[in-house]
Each structure stands twice: as C-alpha cells, then as structure tokens.
Amino acid sequence: MLILECPYCGVKGEETEFHAGGEAHLKRFGPGSEDADFETYLFMRENPKGVHLERWRHANGCGKWFHAARCTMTLEVFGSYSAQTFEPPKEIKDKISAKRPGWSWRNFS
Amino acid sequence: MSNLVSALNHAKSAGFASVEETGLQGMITVRGDLASKAMAAAVKAATGAAVPATRKIEKGDTGAVAWMSPDELLVITSYEGVDSAIEAMKASLQGEHSMVVNVSDARAVFKVSGSAEDVMAKLAPVDFSTEAFQPGEFRRSRLAQVAAAMWKNDDGSFELVCFRSTAQYVFDLLSVSAANGGEVRHLS
Amino acid sequence: MSTRLASGGRLLNKGKAVEFTFNGKRLQGYEGDTLASALLANDQMMVGRSFKYHRPRGIVASGAEEPNALFNMGEGSKFEPNQRATTTELFHGLTCASQNHWPSLEFDVGVVNNYAARFLPAGFYYKTFMAPRAAWKHVFEPIVRQSAGLGKAPKDRDADRYEHFYAFFDVVVVGGGIAGLIAAKAAGASGAKVLLMEQTAHWGGRTPVDGGEIDGVAVEDFIASLVNELKAMGNVTMRNRMMGAGVYDHGYVLGYERVADHTPNAVGPRHRMWRIRASQIVTATGAIERPLSFAGNDVPGVMLAAAVRDYVMDYGVSIGDRTVVVTNNDDAYRTAIALKNSGLEVPVILDARASGGGALADEARALGIRVENGKGIAKVKGGKRVTGVAICAQAGEGSTLEEIKCDAVAMSGGWSPVVHLWSHCGGKLIWDDAQAHFRPDASCAPTNQNGEGFVVPAGTANGPLGLNAVLADAVKAGESAAKAAGFTPKSVAAPQGVASDEAAMEPVWLMPQGAGPKLRMKAWLDYQNDVKVSDVRLAAQEGYESVEHTKRYTTLGMATDQGKLSNINGLATLAGQLNAPIPAVGTTTFRPPYHPVSFGAIAGEARAETFQPVRDTPISGWHSENNAFFEPVGHWRRPYCFPRNGESHAEAVKREINQTRNSLGMLDASTLGKLVVSGPDAGKFLDMLYTNMMSTLKVGKCRYGLMCSENGFLIDDGVVARIDEETFLCHTTTGGAERIHGWMEEWLQTEWWDWKVYVANVTEQYAQVAVVGPNARKVLEKLGGMDVSKEALAFMEWKDGKLGDFDARAYRISFSGELSYEIAVPASQGRAFWDALLEAGAEFDVMPYGTEALHVMRAEKGFIMIGDETDGTVIPQDLNMQWAISKKKEDYLGKRAQERSFMASADRWKLVGLETLDGAVIPDGAYIPAAGENANGQRNVQGRITSTYYSPTMDRGIAMALVHRGPDRMGEVLDIPTLDGTVLKAKIVDQVFYDKDGEKQNV
C-alpha cells in the first residue's frame, strides 16, 4: 500500500486517504475538435512500464487534486506536485532523470 | 426555536476511554484567500483567533478556526453565535471572492477522553504518538470507512467532526474501540 | 511412547496443572505447555489423518511450520477449524478435536484411499476432467468430495471481538529470538523508535534450548538481561504473541497480535491486526529445519530433530524412549546429546555424510552413542506409530543392512532461513551451496517509496547458522536499519558465544540416494497435502517443468502451511528430475500471510453494526418507530414503505400512492444531495456542467438539469435553484452528493483553476421533506408563515421564510406530478418539523410514503430515474430529453461526445412507455427480442425494460423501456418473453401515463 505526500496539506498519508484519478496532463478537446484528437483525449493512455505521471485526490483529507510522478514497476515515488500546471516542475523532472536516466513520458523527458 | 436536536443528542459511552457526542456546535465553512487581510479580519471578527497555519487549529475568545485546505477554513462557534459570526465574516469579506456557509447542522462532533490516542489509532491511519500529534494539530483523514477531521485538546482529549448522517456509525466505532479489555497501552 | 519426563521443561510452570479435552478425552498439561506438547505428554502422538490418503499423521514440528497437528478448536461461537497445536498455548478448558477422519481418528474408513494411492497420482484432479462425464459424476466426484477439506466450517456467528491498530515506527524487528533481541538493541541504541515483535509468548527463540554461554553468562541469563535492557528503553516497544504476517509496499507491515487466544474468557478483543508503517524492517525470523525424504517419513513418531530437542528442553516431554537420529548435518547431534543427557536412549545416529560430523559427533560418541556414517533410513516400520527403522547405505538403493527397534525418529535435512517476509515485497534470494538453502540476496532488497531497500534480514534468517555469526549479523542488521532510517548507530561490539566447530552439511534430497519407485512412493515431501517424491517426479515427466506449474499440478506447498517444510525438498526433487541446478529451478512466490491469520483480524471492527457506515437522516428515528421497511440507497437507509397492520409491501405502497394522489403524502427527501456553487463564474461553470443553460436562470427560480460525463453519458440529474446573482444550489441524486461534489472540484481544480467558483456540500445541513398532494398547500398554510399561494410561489420557484416556528426554504417542485413542495429546514429542526407536519396533516389523513411509492409515482408521470433509465451508456438524447439540452451553448461536458456518429445516430434504443395489452406487470429487467439470431446463435434484441411497476393510479402494469427507434414506432405491439416461458404483449406508448398536461402539479 503506497504512501503519498499531498503537496497541498503536506500530509504523508497511506493510499486509503487518497483516490487515484488516472493519467495526468490530459488536454481536453471539446466541440469542434477532430475525431482523432477527441479519441486521444478520451481513450488513449500511456500505460507505461516505468515512470508515470498520474493524478490523485486527497479524498479523505484536504480534498485537493494533485499530480504524482511514480514508477509503475518499483512503485518508487519521485514526487508530487500541483495539479494546476501543464508539466511537471523541473525539480521533479531532474529527480526522475537522476534515477531513471533517459526516461520519457509523452513529450516530457 | 426549541426542539433542536443534535445527531445523537449527547450520547455517551465509557470503556477504557469515554466517548461523547458533544451536541450542537456552530460551524461555518469559509473559502477564500487564506492569506488575505480580509480573511484575517473575518476570522478575527468571528472568533478572536488568527488564521491557522497549514493543518492547525487556532482558538480564540469566541470560537476556533481550523485549516481544512489551502482555500478553506472551518470556523467553530457556539451554535447560537453562528448567525452573527457569519454576518461579521461576510462583512469583512465584502468584495472578496469568498464563500461563507453555515454547516452547523451538517455535522456531528465527538469527544474522546481518557486513553484517547489508543482509541483513535484503531480507526484512523494517522500517527497519534505524542511526538507526532500535538495539541493544536488538525488532521483530516478517515475513521474506518468515513471521512473525519480531528484535533487534540490541551488536556489530551480528542475531538472529531464527521457528517451528521454517519454519527451513529462513528459513535459505534469509537465505543467498540474504547471498550474495556481493548487497551493497547501503546500510545496512552 | 511419548511422555512427560520427571525433570526439565524450562517453559513450564509445573505448579499449575491445566485441564483440557481432546476428542472428548479429559487430559492434563501444565501452564506453559503448547497444545502439542501437552498432547505428546499424554502419549497422543497421532493427531490426524492426511488430506488425500487418510494416513495416520503425528506431530512433526514444534512451531509455526507444523503441517499435521491441525484441530477443530473450541465449540459453538468460539469454534475455529485448522488451528495448529504447536502455536496454540494451552489454557484451562481448551477443547479440541482432530480432523479429516470418519468415524474416528484410530479407525478411519477413508484410509482406503491409501491403498488406492497409485490411482491418485499427481494431477489426479486434472486428469479426472479428461475422463468421460459419467466417470466424474459417479467415480471421481465422490472420491474428491470425501477427500476435500480438512476442518469443519463454523456454524455459529463468531462471538469474539477483533480490531485494527495503526502504528508508526522507524524500525520494526520481526522475531524475538536472539538475533531479533540484539538487532532491536542495536537499532534502539541509535534513538530510533523500534518495535520488536515475537510470534510466541517467549523471548529468546531457540537459542536457550541449546544452552551454552554468551559473553560469559548462561544463554538464558544473557537473554533475560537483554530483555530487561530493552524493556527499559523508552524508544523500544516489545510485543509478544504478535506475528509479522506480511511485508508490503512502502514499509507497510502487518502485525498479527493474538491478544487473547490463551485467555479466551478475558474481556477484550481476541486478535488485533497492527497496520504498521516502518521506515526499515529487520526480519529476524530464524530458520526452519527440513525433513529428510525417506520411505515412511510420515509415520507418527518421525519428527524434526530440533523439535524433538525443543520438546525435551522446553516442555520436559520425550517423544519416545528409543530415538534414532538421522541427519546430514551436525545440528541433529545436539538432539542426540540432549536425549542422552535426559536419560533417554539413542540406539544410533545415522549420518548420511560419508565423512561424518565434527566436534559434536565426537561428543556424542563420548556419551556412548553409536554413530554410523554414510548411512540412512531405507524405511520406517510401523503404521500408527514408529516401531523401528531399516538401515541402509545412503549411496545405495535401499537394501536393508540392519533393522533397529525404536519408537521415534529424529530427522534433520539441514536448515532453511525463513525468507518469507524478505520475499513478500520483492526481495530476491540466492542459493547458498554450502548450506544448501536459499537466503536473502542483500543486493536485491525490496525497495520503498524512495527506491531504497527497506528490509534487512538478521541472524539465521539471513543465512548464518553458527551462534557467533548470528550474533554479529544481528548487530550489523540493527545498526544498518537504524542508519537507513536516518539515525546514527552507536557502534557496539557483538556479543560472543561459545560455539563448537561444525563439519559441513551435505545436501540429501532422497534417502537413500538411489531409492527406487516403491520407496519414493512412500517418501513424503508435503505432509499436509500428501505430496510425495514420486508425485513431483511424475509432474516433471508429464511436462510440468516450471516450479509454479509443478506446485499447482501436485499441490506441493499449497496447504495451510504453505510448504514451510516441503518447498526446498520439493524443488530440489524437481531440479534432480530435470537435471538442473536448484537455483535455476527457482522458488515459488512467497505471499502473505506468513502463517494463517483469522478472518476476524482482517475485518477488524468492520462487522455487525459497524460493518459499513449506515447513514441516517434527522427523521430516520421516526421511520424506525413507525415500522418502516428500509432499503439501502448507497450508504443511506431509506424507508421503502411503511406497512401497517400486517399489510404486504405492495399493499402499503398502493395505499401510500392513493392517499398522496388523493389527499396528502410526505416523503423524507433529506438524502438528496445539495451543493452550493458560488462565485462570479458560478453561472459559467454550471453551464459547462449541465447540458442546460443555467446562467440565465433567474434568482428565485428553479430549473431541472442534466449532467453528463465527457463520454456524453448521463451521470446525474436534479433541480438547480438560483439563490442570488453569484450563488446556486444544485440538487443531486441521493447517492450522488459526494460524487458530484468531487466531480465539480475536479474540474475546478484541474481544468478551470482560474475560474472564480467555490463549492460546498451542504447536503446534511438540511432535513428536506416533500409535501405532496392536492392538500399540500393547505397543510403548509395551516402551519402558517410564508405565503405559499400559486401567485406567491409558482411552480419551479423557491423562497425562504418561516413555516410555523421553522426556518424554511420552500421549493415548488414536483417529482410525482402532484401539487408539491419540498421544504428544507436545518437538520436539527428536522424531526420537529416532520412531527409538526404530521400533526397539521392529520385532518387530511397525511401519509408518509417511501421510496417505492416515489418510484411508482415518478414512473406514472414518465420521469426518468438515474440508475434505472440510465446505466452509464445512455445519453440524454436517448431519453428524448433534447428539451434539457441547450442549443445555444458552444460547449458543455459531454457535448463533443454526443456529436460522435454513433451517438447522433437515429438507430439507437430510445425511451418509450409500454402498456401490456392485458394489464400485467412486465418483469424487471426483461429484454425485448427481435427476429433472427446474432453471430453467436443468440436471439437478437431490440430493447430492454428500464422501469416497470404496477400503477395503482392506472390500476395496470406500466413500464418504460429503451427500444430501437422506439419513439418512431408508437402503437406497435412487442413480444416480451418472461422467465416462466409465457410471452407478454405490450404496446409502445408515450412514457407519460399520468396527467400529461400537468394540470395537477401546476395548481
């Protein structure tokens, strides 16, 4: 059972305090968008073996959504960060690079 | 208005720790910019306390204020004092993007006294050791299967807030966890 | 025979006799006994029948690894099957019975399986599937059924209490033997917060059994002072009777504390599951001795050598008068020496090693014990009890060199570290050739959230078997755990013991080495699941070469002992057959728990009243007092109906509906979700959330709205009221408040975080009562206060005011088609308000109604219900609700999806009403078949029933259904087959059955 740190309230809580919310940094496509873009938005996911960026909500806590960078193989957590951003902050990317050189996830690396 | 009843109307139980539903309590959800001067003034006006730091509860002359999330506070007053506290806060927050909502009736409040840590630690995945959880700390988590917010008083007792509808469940949880013979003698 | 010795028994309090009952016999033991030692003291060597062949089985071990001594324990509400005698502390009044035999332990009919053993080979169960069907029914199933299961299932509800406990430590040391004690001290000295747990009631493990000295004092005294030292350390917590059940991700450890198994009548919980987070975990879990594989190694009286020694030293119990020791290592000589020193006879030590043992062998010889090198057991004689052994050369094929009479055999095949906890979370193992065992590979420890190792093995659990190596390893483990947890260890010298030089062990996987098929068929690997050397060989021959396949094919290691004794022997046998090195064959996966834990401990407090939250409204008390029949709606408990005077539910529902439609009904609607949405961008936000336009709603007005997911599917509905320019109150479905609140927060926090909107869930702030029926206005007027006339409060309007003494908000909305108000009052006034309404409504014969009447009335009116008409694949257009979808809005959640070709197609199943021609009620969930068959040969379908009821108002069955192009097919008659084979005929009609023009609700 994972331990995650909520970047909003600072709690290092066990997984039962949190609710997993799938992949992070999805770009919404609305009315008027191409079918392919909309399909990507709704259905296409990275599902990587390794570094993953994902959304969590501190559901049994401060209620805030946040992002976490995690290895799906070892369950190592590289860090958690604000949900109100379009990409992971530099220090998180650096930390991942230090531990998983050459990593990439969508267009981040 | 007479006939006001809290969820469990002051139900009590006692084992190696005692459990009590503490009755109606004024509670106000306040959302807004917690760092703003207006918020400080609003909270001060309602309770006499300062805006609490992250995961803290501050006590004032006429109430207490707890940190719920980066943009939310819980103001605790007497049940009778709610309307005037809301009025005062709304006045201070005039013109600010904010929300002040009376939630007094939506909640139930419990107090656990005696070996309270050992009771709490049976239900919440939280470190209640004295080093880790001190008076003034305010923690939202879960109590078995429902959400709850909890804090420790100076006298070592714990208070916790849950939704009114889950009051009986929470009372039963606390009572069975405090039942005689269940002393863990680990935290308290 | 096995018996109690006059002296010895360091764990016993011989001053205190304890009475217990086994298979109805009253027996006596002492305080400090385990059930196993007490049974052995009473010469009860045979304790059960084996799983498959019903062979007599005796106690083999002295600890958690015991495979045979499983009992039905206790009676009635305290009954529990499969309890291990070796881990059960004896208490006064203990009652137990042996398992898996009929009619009795001594005379068992099932033993016939034993003689049919050659018809029950490895994979027997799978092979039966290849036989003709009739064979399964008449031959195999009766056999399998007779064989299946060990203990009995409990019949009564468990009377005991269980609980969880969350705890947090820097270092958790699992195992309170010498290594655990020393590791805990080393870790504790750094100031780290340490938990030391021990599964038995005693500290020190097996070291005191072998005696000797550490740091110049007797082992027992050394341990006693170590325990006192640890107890005095404020940062060290010690718990015995607590087993490390499992190690999981990120330092999560389960500690299974058996609080009251030894005092079953004490007040308090029986078991407590500690849910621990540890920065570092030290596994000082010791090692388990392996049996040797020789023919008849399962005859009662054959026991692990160390267990024989444990029973003598710890409990003063001798297993037999004449014990033959058979071994491939020096440790078993300690057993021979201990037995001899206790005045018992050891006719011979059979050492399979051609070169024999070291200093301990010399000591044994000096005591006059005969030692035979390069020899082994060809066969054990005896059925229900060992009567002798046939000796052979280990290198040969088993020709008998000599027969020796004995009543016990102590065997040792070497030691395997208990690596379970190390392995649970991914720790890797390496094969140690010298000791012929797997031990933790320190370079591949399980990793935590920081990617760092978090489990440190200590002592014999890490591989070393010699005392001094164990002591040194334990200090190192404690210190490195403290360091990894962020503390600075105070370096202390490891204690020094007096150890004897031991000769190297030699692996022996089969005795004798060249044993033929006949002997192999009687050489057991897994006692509990009855797997023999021959079975594993057969599995390999039949192609099950992977160790995981062999395990499942033979069931090796799949019993309740999870192969603690059999794993290594089994996979060595497999490796031998495959001609592969053992490490290449690998091990099966170690999964928690280490040893079975009770279901109660897993459930903790979640049983009976606290099984799951039951949510009550402020009015629930009245419902209970008035014979409500409740139904769960999410976690809420809502009255389904209020039966009176022996009415059926159907009769009650009918009465409630008729009275509501004719005069006055009341519904507790408090469970409806209520979310306040407020801020300058609130209107814009709700326009995105609802398919309707909400921003244009006027203050004081209400509007019914629909919410969709981004897939376009309907997820919730409810009435939105505009409170002021910037504030809306959104009603959700009963189960939907938390979900929709979360949904709103998700969009505000993760997509539109620059929008100025706040949301608060005020569902439980209010008790809400629907006052429904032609007399609804009259009853409110009777309470007095706010003007509720048609002019002052028109349909789909709301207002605040007083009703009687109550602070009320009245919504003029209707879910029944009648004149209706929903009145919200603060929850603490809810019950009083309900009572006041009942009193005022008495003259109209007011009738509270439940959810079923609510459902029927909404269906009569053609209103949809989320979860009935919707199932996560239905879009509003399917429900003909285009009227609730704004055409003016560029965007709302779900709009893009609803433009996809399949969604926009006219070919979808759409909502219609159905009327049976004969007035019958269509069964719930019925499908409407179409002509022809699909590719799978199933009937085509063209629709399904979404809601179906008997309508008291129409006095006939009514239904709603999603039907292919339904609205285009009005008047068509459909065939609806029912489960009893009859076919109902139903006509497609408009879904609104009652008051289509709204004359009733708009008065």
Task: Draw up the topology in text.
The complex is a heterotrimer of chains A (109), B (188) and C (1003).
Chain A: E1 3-5, E2 12-14, E3 19-23, H1 35-43, E4 51-57, E5 65-71, E6 77-82, H2 90-99
Antiparallel strand pairs in A: 1-2, 3-4, 4-5, 5-6
Chain B: E1 12-14, E2 17-21, E3 26-31, H1 37-47, E4 57-59, E5 64-69, E6 72-77, H2 82-92, E7 99-102, E8 107-114, H3 116-120, E9 138-143, E10 146-152, E11 158-163, H4 167-177
Antiparallel strand pairs in B: 1-2, 2-8, 3-6, 3-7, 4-5, 5-6, 8-11, 9-10, 10-11
Chain C: E1 3-4, E2 13-22, E3 25-31, H1 35-41, E4 46-49, E5 56-58, E6 70-73, E7 80-84, E8 94-98, H2 112-115, H3 124-128, H4 133-147, E9 162-174, H5 178-188, E10 194-198, H6 207-210, E11 213-214, E12 217-218, H7 219-232, E13 236-240, E14 242-248, E15 252-258, E16 271-283, E17 287-289, E18 302-304, H8 305-315, E19 317-318, E20 323-327, H9 331-341, E21 349-351, H10 359-366, E22 371-373, E23 375-381, E24 388-393, E25 402-405, E26 408-412, E27 415-417, H11 420-424, E28 429-432, E29 437-440, E30 455-457, H12 467-484, H13 517-520, E31 524-526, E32 531-532, H14 533-541, H15 547-554, H16 567-578, H17 582-585, H18 599-603, H19 620-625, E33 629-633, E34 636-641, H20 649-662, E35 665-668, E36 673-678, H21 682-689, E37 702-708, E38 714-724, E39 727-732, H22 737-750, E40 758-761, E41 766-772, H23 776-783, E42 798-803, E43 806-811, E44 820-826, H24 830-841, E45 847-848, H25 851-860, H26 895-898, H27 901-904, E46 909-916, E47 927-933, E48 939-951, E49 956-964, E50 973-977, E51 983-989
Parallel strand pairs in C: 2-8, 9-10, 9-16, 10-13, 16-30, 18-26, 20-21, 20-26, 21-22, 35-45
Antiparallel strand pairs in C: 1-19, 2-3, 4-5, 6-7, 6-8, 11-12, 14-15, 15-16, 17-27, 23-24, 24-25, 28-29, 31-32, 33-34, 35-41, 36-39, 36-40, 37-38, 38-39, 41-44, 42-43, 43-44, 46-49, 46-51, 47-48, 48-49, 50-51
Helix pairs in contact in C: 5-7, 5-12, 8-9, 9-10, 14-16, 20-25, 23-24
